[in-house]
Design a protein that fits this description.
Blueprint: H1 10-15, H2 21-29, H3 35-43, H4 56-71, H5 82-103, H6 106-121, H7 125-131, H8 136-144, H9 159-181, H10 184-196, H11 204-213, H12 218-228, H13 232-240, H14 252-259, H15 263-277, E1 300-302, H16 307-313, H17 319-331, E2 335-338, E3 354-357, H18 358-361, H19 366-379, E4 384-387, H20 388-394, H21 406-421, E5 430-433, H22 441-452, E6 456-457, H23 458-468, H24 481-486, E7 490-492, E8 498-501, H25 512-521, E9 527-528, H26 529-537, H27 545-553, E10 560-563, E11 567-570, E12 581-582, H28 589-603, H29 614-627, H30 635-647, H31 649-674, H32 684-698, H33 704-720
Antiparallel strand pairs: 1-3, 2-3, 4-5, 6-8, 7-8, 9-11, 10-11, 10-12
Helix pairs in contact: 5-9, 6-9, 10-11, 13-15, 14-15, 20-21, 25-26, 31-33
């Protein structure tokens, strides 16, 4: 395309009202058919007033037109003459070479295209409509250096648009030059920021990795992207699946509580994000760097093979998560996944995750093989050695027996036995089948604790037990308490539903009080509260000195005695007379009673032992214990307790009514929000309270108002179900 063709025609300038009709007619009379001709006429020093028929208005219009074009556009020059064009030919050719070189690099090509699109978006609407129709390559070849005779769609592209096109050309030249001469490390950092939104010191590692291997560490980058993404669906992926090593995924209820949504909505989000990520051609893995990973060429790919990626890229992903990613990007046609992450919270029969070539899956049923081997273990009555090759050859798992594949499948079966059943073959390829001894429930729970190696909460024990024994009829963690305490080697820790093995030396079992008794039993003289606390903190670091003192004062079995200066001993031991005994140094009885009688009239009820207010809670706990005879009090104090009970009997009824109404409001709100009745596993208190008021209703123990509220609640539950 020639320079002349880049400028609008004179008639177009008239149509755009850049010049008047009279001025346009005057220009065409002397052959000035385009803006290019007008600028050449002006640069050669010709006077516009010499044009035939031109007056002052025509002169000033043309003079203003040329001067505005020259001075209002940065870096804009008048059209070049032949000798100037020849001088720039080499520079234009060099620019094209630079651009063609950048096109060979996919990243740099995308960067220039993105820059081109960004500049176009800053143009006016009329210019943007024209420029958006021109691909970058066309603009570079036909406009940037004017090396082609093909015409661009110049119609309706007037002077103000031309200025924007010239500005676009200059900015593209700068960007092409910058990209061409930019050092590779700096370019990689820029690409990491633009493409992956990672910057600063974080970008150093992927740059060094790229220079070494020729592609970015995509597992490492994906981990950083997931860390920086706070989208709710992505959080469901991160928090409810085991995508990180040493991660304990959240349950549906836990995630729902965290985001204030229903369990059903969590299930929907969880399934959607799982299907969105782990499908062929997933948008998560469209980056071409994923395709640069070298596929494994093995009969089966195991979890331990994924340690290569974890160590090589310094990422924290779990092995099963990496295996499922590799299945999506590399192995979707050649391998089948066993085990892995579960989108439905159902029991996964496989304990480990691995990939097996489809050519073996098509002829051998590995799921059935796992089941058959488990049956062999269960029916075995005496110990013997079993040859793996014979087992594989003669088993009923073959879909189509192929002798040539028997050796490969035997090798796969050997690894399955090692990973799934922790059975390693000997040098002759045989495994030992032990005599099966049926374990009772306590023994199974003992095995769970022993395999874990650390204290476990009752809910954790239940979750692991149901994973191993999904068919067991146990439906609530509470049902596991009796068999846990029945086993002679299992004990509890601090009465918080945490269980340990007595054989462990790194964990103290029992309660804080039993720990105190153990310490004082070894001492001949009473010990200070500080000495006792220092000993207890070795095993119960979450406690403090105040809690230790209160625990001894509140002991209902009266196993502790108290001495002056806050020294403590055991009631069954005899100490030197120099230690003077004292009474319980908690708040005196009279002071407690006075606070109680002040609280009741002010609040219209007795204090709640479960109150969030600390003062009320302490007073409520004290009243419950003295009124039920848990605390030792003398006869005179007992008479005072009876007096308070009689005097404030109406207030006690108010307290029960008040608490009943609070519980009713809580369970009604729960049903409305969750569209179900409370569960015994996660909403235990509401579950049992609902059962109690149902019994009270049937046995006519509710007042008229409570009966109406119970009927209303029952109708609400029936409507939801």
């Amino acid at each position: 395309m020639t320079d002349r063709e880049l400028y609008p025609l004179t008639k177009d300038l008239v149509r755009a009202k850049e010049i008047s009709v009279r001025t346009g007619n005057c220009c065409r009379k002397i052959g000035l058919e385009s803006l290019y001709d007008i600028l050449i006429y002006y640069k050669q020093g010709e006077a516009f007033e010499n044009i035939e028929g031109a007056g002052a208005k025509t002169f000033f219009e043309l003079q203003w037109l040329c001067e505005t074009l020259m001075f209002s556009i940065p870096n804009c020059t008048l059209p070049k003459f032949e000798e100037e064009i020849v001088q720039d030919a080499d520079a234009d050719a060099e620019m094209i070479e630079h651009f063609n070189a950048l096109l060979q690099d996919e990243f740099k090509k995308k960067t220039i295209e993105k820059k081109y699109e960004q500049i176009i978006q800053t143009c006016s609407l009329s210019a943007r409509i024209w420029l958006e129709q021109i691909p970058l390559i066309t603009f570079i070849s036909e406009y940037l250096t004017c090396s082609s005779d093909n015409k661009l769609p110049m119609e309706h592209f007037f002077m103000k648009n031309l200025r924007e096109a010239i500005d676009l050309k200059e900015k593209l030249k700068i960007e092409i030059t910058r990209q061409f001469y930019m050092p590779q490390e700096e370019y990689l950092k820029e690409e990491i920021f633009n493409h992956y939104r990672l910057s600063g010191s974080v970008a150093e590692y992927p740059v060094s990795y790229y220079l070494k291997y020729g592609h970015f560490p995509m597992f490492w980058i994906l981990e950083k992207q997931l860390e920086n993404d706070s989208n709710r669906a992505v959080n469901a992926l991160k928090e409810t699946f085991r995508i990180y090593r040493d991660q304990k995924p959240l349950s549906l209820a836990e995630f729902a509580a965290e985001y204030s949504i229903s369990r059903e909505r969590v299930r929907q989000i969880r399934k959607w994000i799982f299907d969105e990520v782990f499908r062929y051609e997933s948008a998560f893995f469209q980056d071409k760097n994923w395709q640069l990973y070298k596929p494994w060429d093995k009969d089966a790919i195991w979890q331990e093979d994924m340690q290569f990626y974890i160590n090589d890229e310094q990422c924290n992903f779990s092995e099963e998560f990496i295996l499922q990613i590799l299945l999506v990007i590399l192995y979707y046609n050649n391998y089948t996944l066993y085990g892995g992450l579960d989108s439905k919270f159902t029991k996964n029969s496989w304990h480990s995750t691995f990939l097996i070539k489809n050519e073996f899956v098509e002829i051998f049923d590995f799921d059935k093989f796992r089941i058959e081997f488990k049956e062999i273990q269960l029916v075995n009555k005496s110990e013997y050695l079993l040859d793996i090759q014979t087992l594989v050859t003669k088993c009923h798992c073959w879909k189509k027996f192929v002798p040539e594949a028997a050796a490969n499948i035997t090798g796969i079966a050997r690894e399955i036995l090692r990973l799934e059943f922790q059975i390693c073959p000997d040098t002759d390829g045989r495994v030992k089948i032990s005599a099966y001894k049926r374990k009772n429930l306590s023994d199974k729970l003992y095995d769970i604790l022993k395999n874990n190696g650390n204290p476990m909460h009752l809910s954790e024990i239940y979750a692991e037990f149901k994973r191993i024994n999904p068919e067991h009829r146990c439906s609530d963690p509470v049902q596991l308490r009796p068999p846990l305490l029945k086993h002679e080697s299992i004990s509890y820790r601090n009465r918080k539903s945490v269980y340990v093995l007595k054989e462990w030396t790194h964990v103290k079992f029992g309660t804080i009080r039993s720990c105190i008794i153990e310490f004082l039993s070894k001492k001949k003289s009473p010990r200070s509260s500080k000495d006792i606390t220092d000993y207890v903190l070795q095993y119960f670091p979450e406690t403090n000195i105040a809690s230790v003192r209160t625990s001894m004062f509140n002991d209902t079995q009266h196993r502790f005695v108290f001495f002056n200066n806050e020294f403590f001993g055991l009631s069954h031991k005899k100490y030197h007379p120099k230690y003077e005994r004292t009474v319980n140094s908690l708040m005196p009885f009279a002071q407690r009673l006075s606070s109680l009688e002040k609280f009741i009239p002010e609040n219209g009820r007795f204090p709640f032992a479960s109150s969030k207010n600390r003062t009320e809670r302490i007073l409520g706990v004290w009243w419950v214990r003295v009124s039920r005879g848990i605390y030792m009090i003398n006869e005179e104090q007992r008479k005072e307790i009876e007096r308070v009970k009689i005097l404030y009997a109406n207030y006690d009824a108010n307290k029960r009514t008040f608490q009943w109404n609070i519980n009713y409001s809580t369970i009604k709100s729960f049903v409305l929000e969750n569209h179900r009745i409370p569960s015994i596993s996660s909403e235990k208190f509401l579950y049992h309270w609902y059962g109690r008021i149902k019994t009270d209703f049937l046995e006519n123990r509710l007042n008229e108002e409570q009966r109406k509220k119970y009927i209303e609640l029952s109708e609400l539950i029936d409507a939801i179900e």
